[in-house]
Amino acid sequence: MFRWHYIKSNYLYIGIHLMSAVLALSKGLSPFHIILTNPKFPLGGLSAASKVKVLDHFKSTEQFLPQVLIAKDMSAEDRKSKALAFIENASLPVIAKPDRGVVGIGIRKINSLEELDEMVEIMPCDYMLQEFCDYPLEYGIFFCKYPGKEKGRVVSLTQKLIPTIIGDGQKTVRDLVDLNPHIKFNKNNLLTHAKNLDYVPKAGENYQILDQASHTYGCVFKDNYFEISPEMDAWMNEMCSKASEFYFGRFDMKMKDKDSLKTGDGTKICELNGCWSEPIHIYDDDHTIAYAAKEMFRSYKRAYKIAKLNQKRLNIRISYREIINAYRSYMQEKAEIIKVVG
Q1: Looking at the structure, do residues 26 and 50 belong to the same domain, yes or no?
Q2: Chain centroid, CA 241 distance in Å
Q3: Are 104 and 132 found together in one domain?
Q4: Helix, strand, or coil here: 139?
Q5: Model confidence at 310, in pLDDT bands (50, 70, 90)?
Q6: Each residue of 33-84: pLDDT tens digit?
């Protein structure tokens, strides 16, 4: 089967934006109104918004991971001091990532004070440090709730599988990736972003190629819709009820085991992608581009329905200038991150 989602094409994004615009207009809205899906969140949880500020809405939940913002406009000394204070409480390793989402680019696992020093020196943007969670399973969980309804539901569940290789004591990571028959369509992504390509894993060593479960970097996504259950809906509703006016978005979460999907215990939020987020089950290799288009249409249809209901209910006026300026600065920052740490 043709793996459409590994092909980089601006036409795909143009198609998505046109779809979004048509759905917005059908509701009497502009595409900018999508930020009203989560009206109390900065920019509705848009990728141009601060991750720290978005995740802080879930600070009272059991699923929250401690985090801190390290601002680029602080002096290097102050950045280091703030980072060290956080590490004293969280301990190493920690995860460092840009404070505004860049599809996995710039994420680093900080294992030592030396690596922390390097990150503080080179970071070209506001960064967040987050407590490292070593739970072995990772999922994208898309939650949707309509204003006025008592309960929402999980509409998409995707397992993220970071590719691994088994060492033979002789070949490098690069060689093992190149020779692995199961790594084909995402090979270029992996070889571009894999860690320690010249490292020689020991014989029998199960080596994880990436630190981050990003599709952009070559992570494999599996549509696990069959694992969505009433029990999962229950704990997701309880968690989301603790955040003011949250209706729509995808949580990237670590899980201790499969039971965590049903109970919510042993579950931690790594990231939340709000109003513009994708239901990433569409990137399962078994799904066609036609299926993906249909699912994206359904997702944006939900988003603009929620936005319209919130507009009527709260009578909110949005600032186009604020959104445009935020997105422009975000794109500039993204380009700098790719240049420096990508």
Answers
A1: yes
A2: 21
A3: yes
A4: strand
A5: very high
A6: 999 999 999 999 988 899 999 999 999 999 999 999 999 888 888 998 999 9
158 Cβ neighbours under 8 A, 6+ residues apart: 139, 140, 141, 221, 222, 223, 224, 279, 280, 281, 283, 284
Shared domain check, 26 and 83: yes
Q: Which are the contacts of 31, defined by CB distance < 8 A and separation ≥ 6?
A: 17, 20, 21, 24
Burial 54-67 (b: 16+ CB within 10 A, else e): bbbbbeebebbbeb
Q: Is 89 helix (H, G, I), strand (E, B) or coil?
A: helix
Token digits of residue 12: 């795909």
The C-alpha atoms of residue 72 and residue 91 are separated, in whole angstroms, by 22
Q: Is residue 215 part of a domain?
A: no
pLDDT band at 16 (very low <50, low <70, confident <90, very high): confident
- Structure confidence by residue, pLDDT tens digits, 86-125: 998 888 999 998 998 766 677 888 989 898 888 888 878 8
Q: Which one-letter DSSP state was computed for residue 65? A: P
Domain that holds residue 153: 4-160+221-340
pTM score, two decimals? Answer: 0.91
Given this model, what pLDDT does residue 192 score? 75
Helix (H, G, I), strand (E, B) or coil at 61: coil
